[in-house]
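Researcher: Good morning. I'm working through a list of sequences from a screen, and I'd like to move beyond sequence-only analysis. For each chain I'm collecting a predicted structure so we can compare shapes side by side. This is the next one on the list. No need for commentary yet; just the structure.
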Amino acid sequence: MKKIILSITITFLFCISAYADTSVPPLINYQGMLTDADGKPMTGTKKLEFNIYDSATGGTIIWGPQIFNTVPLINGKFNVILGTTDNDGRSIVEAFGAKDRYLGIKVDAGAELVPRQQILSAPYSVKAEHAAKADHAVEADHSLKADHATEADHATEADMATAVRGLPPADYDSGWFYVGANQNYDKTHDLGILPRLAIIWGASDAEGSDMLMMDRLIHKYSDNEYGCLLQGITETDYSIRTGTRSSMAKNNTWGGSNGFIRVFMWK
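Model: Good morning. Structure tokens for this chain:
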């Protein structure tokens, strides 16, 4: 029996209303991990179906399905972008008219995985403080986590292009740059508008070795001490704030306290 084990996150990354512009496509970045009956990470590609319900069991489908026919698994871990509409053309924004919402997932032709995952934070919790500036917008307020999350998965350069499904090529790529502890790095993206989505990859060197997607399960910004935080975003600039002890997470897989990151942004 296939199951999603204890490594599930819903993160709202500049997705729904990153600033006061309703033309911004509503998107939800969803990350999870699939294992087999023995608890081993699955590999290859899988067909995934997502539905949003109004109840933990039974209930009514409020949004969905959205189906991804070939989702790559990297050491069991996958990443998809939900939205902007389901297969019937309904906007994902319409799914959040009430607080009780649950995400159901099907793998290939199997039955829906249980239990459904409760969505604890409404997408509109990601808001801009001002119309021209969004501080801390990439740091999600809440995530769905389980008890024994696998700490990290490794990716290749080719994996970087396919790990985030449903997105076109990035409009901005910073390239790899070093980040040390307790620093602030001012950068320019020159997109001309606030980006609707931003993703950070980390690596152990400038060649992109041991790449890891920096999400809320891996190298997150924690208690101002560890990790990287994307902040101070304007129509042309942004900054990276690093933890006082390390720019990477505590007990990171690289064995050092700092590393290299690469920032991707989409208009």
